[in-house]
Amino acid sequence: MLKSEDKQIDARQLRILLTLIEECSVTRTAEILNQSQPYVSLVLKRLRELVGDPLLVRSGAKLVPTERARSMVEPIRAVLAGIEQVVSPARTFVPAEASGTFHIASADCMEAFFLPRLIAQMRTAAPGIRLTIRSIEQGYDYAAALERGELDAVIGNWPSPPQNLKTVHLMADDIVCLMGEQHPLAAAQSLSMARYLEVEHLAPVPMSSADPGPIDGRLAELGLKRDIRVMVPEFNLVPYVLLSSDLVFTSSRHFAQHYSAFLPIRTIDAPAEFGKMRFYLLWHERAHAAPENNWLRNQIIGVARALATRPAAVL
Predict the structure, then answer these.
(1) Where would I find the HTH lysR-type domain in this sequence (predicted)?
(2) Are the C-beta atoms of residues 215 and 221 closer than 8 Å to each other?
């Protein structure tokens, strides 16, 4: 009886067995696999002992596989294919020939000026790819979704990005105030912090109490708080609320320029104390080396670089 340590079998022995079953010849198997006939016979002998079956039997002048051997053909092929997949070099990603789906989560403020450009660019470069985009709404754990493989990338704006994910800075944008043309401050060029705190504000619903967003987060750092009268769940509602109210909304210049191009929305500079709004790309270590994820990241970075090098008004 074979001991447990004698029951091991390697890929080379499996390939010899598969070739023996297919060729029904020790001589041809040795020639095909560039092995000696004695070694092939030795492997066959050992495998017969291992599985308790003759595997190949004489039928006149030739060998024929037993029923047990025939039943082993597909499992052996599957095992060898799996081993080949494991040890093969990393696959290349050819965008023009690729299929599959990318999953991206994005901050709402990027829906107007960033995501349409990204979608257009990806549709041109990889027409067979599908793209699913979702917003980062309140309570959504995008870090866990990245870890589980439910997301491929996250695009957002944070004063400082999470430290437990792979990160690259995409772009920095001016912070401005948006208001309808009927607003009393619509003719101004900029707002001081004192005047900013006097007006009534429209704001997005915060992600959580721990993440109030880049605007209120910066105000908290300064020991200040603005007068928020209305909160909305989606940035797409913002311009239409501004058109019929005396509220002020604070966001990035690219977001503001998008809507002021076709709606009577005024844009003025926010208080200088806000600095810049910074946008980041996040992904998980598990996908860092994947060719397709690397390509996706480069597409996102390319769109950000194009936006950063041209004035917002041109876009």
Answers:
(1) 9-66
(2) no
Tell me the β-bridge partners of 268: 177
User: Domains along the chain?
Assistant: 8-87 (1.10.10.10), 95-315 (3.40.190.290)
User: 3-class secondary structure for the chain?
Assistant: CCCHHHHCCCHHHHHHHHHHHHHCCHHHHHHHHCCCHHHHHHHHHHHHHHHCCCCEEEECCEEEECHHHHHHHHHHHHHHHHHHHHHCCCCCCCHHHCCEEEEEEECHHHCCCCHHHHHHHHHHHCCCEEEEEEECCCCCCHHHHHHHCCCCEEEEECCCCCCCCEEEEEEEEEEEEEEECCCCCCCCCECCHHHHHHCEEEEECCCECCECCHHHHHHHHCCCCCEEEEEECCHHHHHHHHHCCCCEEEEEHHHHHHHHCCCCEEEEECCHHHCEEEEEEEECHHHCCCHHHHHHHHHHHHHHHHHHCCCHHHC
> Please, what is the Cα angle at 13 between 7 and 15, to 5 degrees?
140
Question: What is the pTM (predicted TM-score) of this model?
Answer: 0.70
User: What letter represents residue 201's amino acid?
Assistant: H
pLDDT tens digits, 219-240: 999 999 999 999 998 898 999 9
Q: For residues 109 and 106, what is the distance between their CA atoms, to the nearest angstrom?
A: 8
Under 8 Å CB-to-CB from 303, ≥6 apart: which residues? Answer: 114, 117, 118, 121
How far is residue 231's CA from residue 246's CA, in Å, rounded to a whole number?
A: 14
- The half-sphere exposure of 98 on its side-chain side, counting CA atoms within 13 A, is 22
Q: Which residues pair with 19 in a beta bridge?
A: none
